[in-house]
Write a structure and sequence with these properties.
Shape of chain A: globular
Shape of chain B: globular
Largest sheet of chain A: none
Oligomer: heterodimer
CATH superfamily of chain A: MetI-like
Strand content of chain B: 25-35%
Structural class of chain A: mainly alpha
Strand content of chain A: under 5%
Distance between the termini of chain B: 25 Å
Number of helices of chain B: 6
CATH topology of chain A: MetI-like fold
Radius of gyration of chain A: 20 Å
Radius of gyration of chain B: 17 Å
Structural class of chain B: alpha/beta
Largest interface: A-B, 20 and 26 residues
Number of strands of chain A: 0
CATH class of the domain at 26-46 and 80-206 in chain B: Alpha Beta
Number of domains of chain A: 1
Strand order of the largest sheet of chain B: 2-1-4-5-6
CATH superfamily of the domain at 26-46 and 80-206 in chain B: P-loop containing nucleotide triphosphate hydrolases
Helix content of chain B: 25-40%
Order of helices and strands of chain B: EEEHEEEEHHHEHEHE
Number of strands of chain B: 10
Mean pLDDT of chain B: 88
Low-confidence stretches of chain B: none
CATH topology of the domain at 26-46 and 80-206 in chain B: Rossmann fold
Helix content of chain A: over 70%
CATH architecture of the domain at 26-46 and 80-206 in chain B: 3-Layer(aba) Sandwich
Low-confidence stretches of chain A: none
Mean pLDDT of chain A: 92
CATH class of chain A: Mainly Alpha
Chain lengths: ~230, ~220
């Protein structure tokens, strides 16, 4: 295997790991707020979070590319103030992947929290525990399957991300060229062998991740019933 | 003593009605809260615990004002020092019996009390067991031990025996009475069962359609 092949796989894994870790940190408080608070604009927030599921990735990619462009206000602000250029960079595709992965992390977490009886939180409060302690000691451990599902779906989705990464990052080796883009590129140049290697690896990773999710969730359910 | 003077609008199957209660619950008493389904028994307990906000009024526990609309006081449940036993027990499935009970004690640890509680309620053999593996009666005992582990001034029991079969019920009634005496708590227990009320209560708070201004000393209600 050549360095380019390894580099592309490493970059794919790095992007998926960074995106999943970021989304877990963002997703936990957002899911908590959506599960337990009521506010007027909640429906709008929920719709916005779900948009990446229904919109073509190129639509979000296009808007992000426009926003990140130094010729526009936001991109120019980032470049002039922080010397940061997001278009066609790893940071840019990282942010784009976070936005594209929002529903895959937040929805399982929110559904998991909403499925818990209210009495768990209330019991913890009457036992003198703060909301933070209640969240980390009572709620989070009892939505383990949802957390695992969120992590695995986000990771798997990010590995398979194509349109949004191509729009925002292009196809720069060792910077923005992830495996799904490399497959497309190799097919275009008739390198079917390399395309096949990438495809098989992505297939196996996704298959293993989904098998792990279903096995863990099944054993969690069985443990709860016995 | 618990001074309760609260009003709250409630939506029932018969339409909207107002829960209007002004009573004093004597210290160390065992008060059974009775009334038809949907009359506001659980709501009353939740208002005392700080899990539900009254529309108006005042709740004073001993010298501690826990709710007073006129002074904008509404202490959160964490600061009310109550022990609340939920109808579904609300035991945390991720924790063992011991961990559930000890969870009530993070700031003021008293391992001796946990030992005493597990011994009193016959939980010694189940300490390391996860709570989702327990029977209904065992869950009830753990929930009671956990509610007492923080040494609460008030013990609020929301139909703790509703899901327990008749045979076990009497034994658990004795355990609740024992816990009440042992920890000198002021206890309020929601109950539908007349025999249970007659057996356990020193005072009765019957919630009907009228305003409530006093407790009863014996069960004289036909439809309670």
């Amino acid at each position: 295997m050549d360095d380019d092949f390894i580099g592309t796989l490493f970059l794919t894994g790095k992007l998926a790991a960074a995106t999943t870790a970021s989304l877990l940190l963002i997703g936990l408080p957002v899911a908590y707020a959506l599960a337990y608070t009521r506010f007027r604009a909640k429906g709008i927030f929920e719709a916005l979070i779900c948009m990446p599921m229904v919109l073509p990735p190129t639509v979000i990619g296009y808007y992000l590319l426009v926003a990140f462009s130094p010729q526009n206000a936001f991109g120019a602000f980032l470049e002039n103030t922080f010397d940061l250029r997001l278009a066609f960079s790893f940071r840019g595709i990282w942010i784009a992947s976070i936005i594209a992965g929002l529903p895959f992390m937040i929805q399982p977490l929110q559904n998991g929290l909403m499925a818990l009886p209210d009495s768990y939180r209330e019991a913890a409060y009457t036992l003198g525990k703060s909301e933070t302690v209640t969240f980390f000691r009572v709620l989070l451990p009892n939505i383990k399957p949802s957390v695992i599902t969120g992590i695995a779906f986000t990771f798997a989705h990010c590995i398979g991300e194509f349109g949004i990464v191509l729009m925002v990052g292009g196809n720069i080796p060792n910077e923005t060229r992830i495996a799904s883009i490399a497959i497309y590129d190799e097919v275009q140049t008739l390198n079917y062998d390399v395309a096949h290697k990438y495809s098989l690896i992505l297939f196996l990773i996704s298959f293993v991740l989904l098998t792990v999710i279903y096995s863990i969730n099944k054993s969690f359910k069985l443990n709860s019933l016995t | 003593m618990i001074h309760i003077n609260v009003e709250r609008k409630m939506l029932t199957s018969d339409g909207e009605r107002k829960l209007d209660i002004a009573v004093d619950i004597p210290k160390h008493s065992f008060t059974c809260v009775c009334g038809n389904s949907g009359c506001g028994k659980t709501s009353l307990l939740r208002m005392i615990a700080g899990l539900m906000k009254p529309d108006s009024g005042k709740i004073v526990v001993g010298d501690n004002v826990v709710y007073d609309l006129s002074k904008k006081i509404n202490l959160p449940p964490q600061k009310r020092h109550i022990g609340f036993m939920f109808q579904d027990y609300a035991l945390f499935p991720n924790m063992t019996v011991q961990q559930n009970i000890a969870f009530a004690q993070s700031y003021d640890k008293d391992p001796a009390l946990i030992e005493r509680l597990t011994a009193t309620f016959g939980l010694d053999m189940l300490r390391k067991q996860k709570t989702y593996k327990l029977s209904g009666g065992q869950k009830q005992r753990v929930a009671l031990a956990r509610a007492l582990a923080s040494k609460p001034q008030i013990l609020l029991l929301d139909e703790p025996l509703s899901a327990i079969d008749e045979e076990l019920r009497t034994a658990l009634q004795d355990e609740i009475s024992k816990a009440h005496r042992l920890f000198s708590a002021t206890t309020l227990m929601v109950s539908h069962d007349k025999a249970e009320v007659a057996r356990m209560a020193t005072h009765i708070l019957y919630i009907g359609k009228e305003k409530i201004r006093s407790l009863q000393n014996q069960l004289t209600i036909d439809n309670g």
